[in-house]
Amino acid sequence: MREATPLIRLRRAVVHSVNGLAxxxxxxxxxxxxxxxxxxxxxxxxxxxxxxxxxxxxxxxIVDTEWLRQLTVEYRAHSLARLGGYWDxxxxxxxxxxxxxxxxxYVWQRRQFGEVNYLTTILYARSHDEHGVLDRIDEDxxxxxxxxxxxxxxxxxxxxxxxxxxxxxxxxxPLGDLRPLRLVDVGAGYGRLAHRLATVVPDAEIYCTxxxxxxxxxxxxxLRYRNLTDRVTVVPLTRLDSIATPIRVATNVHSFxxxxxxxxxxxxxxxxxxxxxxxxxxxxxxxxxxVDGRSFRDLLEARGFELAATRPKYDDPLVDRYAxxxxxxxxxxxx
Length: 335
Prior knowledge:
Blueprint: H1 6-22, H2 32-42, E1 51-54, H3 65-76, H4 89-92, H5 115-127, E2 147-150, E3 153-156, H6 157-172, E4 182-186, H7 192-200, E5 205-209, H8 213-225, E6 232-234, E7 249-253, H9 261-273, E8 278-282, H10 297-302, E9 305-312, H11 317-322, E10 328-334
């Protein structure tokens, strides 16, 4: 884990202190270069760097639909299916199996945001990438990902969200003490975070699982497409006992929030049984809370998960106002 330099730590401390005082007067300190670029974009002036939306042709169909049908039957018979949640059959039927990285239930993208918001988010991610994550991951726009081209490089929400999340984890996880690193992504969706984790932490043993059959099928196909089957294993809900334990780290990004309270409890019990030490949660609503506003913090506390670190996704109020989908990161430790 790369340590921040004394100069970076001093700059952060100064800005944090000044902002603490300035907020009393409704003022915030940010980099002038960021303000200049945002002001130019909002005023409709020629941007400082060329950029455009990238468009890809039709995506190939890579999902094994026969396996998906089998999984659907198995998942419907599982006890977890009776606990309910946001992702019912009507909701999942809206997914496009070819454009699963487009603006959909997995990753909301341009539905309510434009170029200025994307630019703000990109600039923030680039200026807060102290572990060089963006130097190791990239974007190709495959399977419908809405991407902005900036200085000859594509940026998607998938890319910048992953960079922000991984920088937070690299800041706070004692990776040197977690070898061998065995990690499970619960509610893995199409495999966004696992794809990025496997690239940035190549020696990690990563598992993906999900309570939604179509997500398991898509995730398996996507990670095969990315040639990551030697580093990432997609495990169906009905085969969780095949995952090696103990698990050092578990991640859950915008997944617990979309479950029922009872389903969150079920997964947390499984994580406890699997020996999870660290749990990273990114909820849809702070608290952390379900989409209906009910907090599930009590479920975490009852199982011994203690909050080790938390911060807003964007640690500056001006960026938080203009960037894509603000939120809060939570890292819990158990034992």
